[in-house]
Amino acid sequence: MTSTTATVTSRHRVAVIGSGFGGLFATKALRRAKVDVTVIDRTTHHLFQPLLYQVATGILSEGEIAPSTRMVLKDQPNATVVLGEVTTLNLSARTVTSVQDGRPTVTEYDSLIVSAGAQQSYFGNDHFAEHAPGMKTIDDALELRGRILAAFDHAELATDPDERAKLLTFVVVGAGPTGVEMAGQLTELAHRTLVGAYRNFDTRDARIILVDAAATVLPPFGTNLGTKAAAVLEKLGVEIRLGSTVTDVDADGLTVRDTAGENHRIDAVCKVWSAGVAASPLGAQLAEQSGAELDRAGRIAVEEDLTVPGHPNVFVVGDMMSRDRLPGVAQVAIQGGCYAAKQITYQVKALAEDRPVPDRTPFRYRDKGSMAIIARFKAVTKIGRLELTGFLAWVLWLAVHVVYVVGFRSRLATLLSWTWTLLGSWRGQLTSTHQQITARNAIAYLHYLERRIEDTDTEVAQAS
Description:
By secondary structure, the protein is an alpha/beta fold. The chain has helices spanning 21-29, 52-56, 62-65, 69-72, 138-157, 161-167, 177-193, 223-236, 282-290, 330-352, 391-403, 408-423, 434-463, and strands at 2-3, 12-17, 35-41, 79-83, 85-90, 95-100, 103-108, 111-114, 118-120, 169-173, 207-212, 238-242, 245-250, 253-257, 263-267, 270-273, 277-279, 300-301, 307-308, 311-316, 321-322, 370-375, 378-383, 386-389. The protein has 13 helices and 24 strands.
């Protein structure tokens, strides 16, 4: 076992779990503080998750929205990056245990910021994931890109009309911002970019179906904007089925149950799941050790200073925390991470100057609005009571999102990619491989076999 804190130091040690918006902004906010920061994450990159659907539909490359965390923090001397999946939090011992390729690492801390994010939720039907990937990681986006393009390629070879129709039917489950944006881009991909690229069929014959159990599109935006967004989607050709709950998913389609309790079959090879999220399992460990409550999504209830009960040195920010019904959006994570960093900085400075640590002011979230792009020149924006649609909302969406892309080169590359796509029909990232489509399930099956072997070895040992 290794430890990242083998060198004795008198400086305050801060462990940050997760390199998403909350973790990265917290780390950068501690740049000038007299602390040593250790960022622990199972990936080597900072992911701009709201733009994953643009990787899946060929607009952006993964590098444009997922820069290397080490490179982002290269010029921050007090920050160290540790690769590994956090498996154990010990609040009493103040240690974090992470594992990478079977190698455990123990990181000691004085202050802890937990920003491990969320994962896709299938509402207890995890087997749906085999045929309906979510959209939470780079691997998810690349797999979806492969599945989408493979459906068109296979339709070119199909001779049976029913088979071709099934291949050209794309179902997006979930009518939140991600689902709406995905459905809009799938429509533009089929109706603009790929037109004329295939000889045996017209890509404009593709069906894009948006399914959700909710009564409106974009529920967080309110009925008015939801209705307007639905109208735009339908004008683009998207079929919207609200009040429809998915009850089964297989390789050839899915089954939905409507509000009357009747089941309907949708034949579709390519399905995208964006219907729900669940907080990181680390929330359960924090709740068990602190006595905090967990909500239905696995988010942990935090104090007004974003700490867990009884542990004023342990902050939880972003999608993992539950406080004042705050939404799971990037701005909540960013502001929470910066707030936690500020409280740690105040504490360290007070102790260094041998004076009392000031009382913490409660965390206050400043709502900067919600945005969702539907298609080219079409978006919806809600900022307080102000509601915008159409071109102006689209321009605001572009401006806000490019600001939060990390790194000047990534911003420039993103702007160029958007220019080519939005002003013309070209998409420069339409490359995919068969391995991208099959790797996830192959790895999952490999892990299943490993567990079976371990269980068999245990049973043999117990029998002998």
